[in-house]
Specification:
about 25% strand, globular, Rossmann fold, about 250 residues, alpha/beta, 10 strands
Length: about 250
Amino acid sequence: MTPRPEWRRLGGLDTLVVSGAAGAPVIAMFHGYGADANDLAPLSQVVRTPAGTTWLFPNAPHEVAIGPHMTGRAWFPIDMEALQIAMMSGRHRDMSDLRPPELAQARAMAMAMLADFGAPIERVILAGFSQGAMLATALALHADRPPLGLAILSGTMLDREVWQRLAPQRSGLRFFQSHGTHDPLLDFHAAERLHAMLNSAGLQGEFMPFRGQHEIPMPVLDGLSRYLGTLAPADSGLEPSIATKE
């Protein structure tokens, strides 16, 4: 039976926690722009993980308008007008040279969340969708020590110069990445370039393209499950194994 989620205030972030066992992996899952922690929380019910895995679903610190009388959360502001203009013209906005100052704050709060929870980075799989995937990648590259894993779901590159400089320090880190070939928001080819950059720096990544848009379809969930099934902290007593359907 899956543990009942509970809200906790960790590192200044309201975080939905699905508790697991001590010593097992911890998945920190960061939502996309305009969503909140509840958006990705159902993944804890459908993604297969090593036994005892804990899930952390934090709410981003910034409130943003997403429609009339509707708000969501964001890790850092996005120029939505520029993004919409690019989409209307059939182009994608290149974000690789952006260095949002709020991203550093988001990184600090995410690391404080993990520290408050008592999760050393070596046990943590950093994961996210869209803007959350950008944060997860930034965390993996900037952290003092390598995380257990990294899952980049429909993300893209930011702060290219710094990411390229930091990436070789994560040589050997295995990661999972997915992206829709018809994604109207974040360019599929930019995702390919991110994957190539990380692999050329020595990281070992699986790239899963899918015929779709800005989403997480079932084949990606299956691929993510397989990837997660190969991960277990070295001192957890758990044996890495390929996840299989129940």
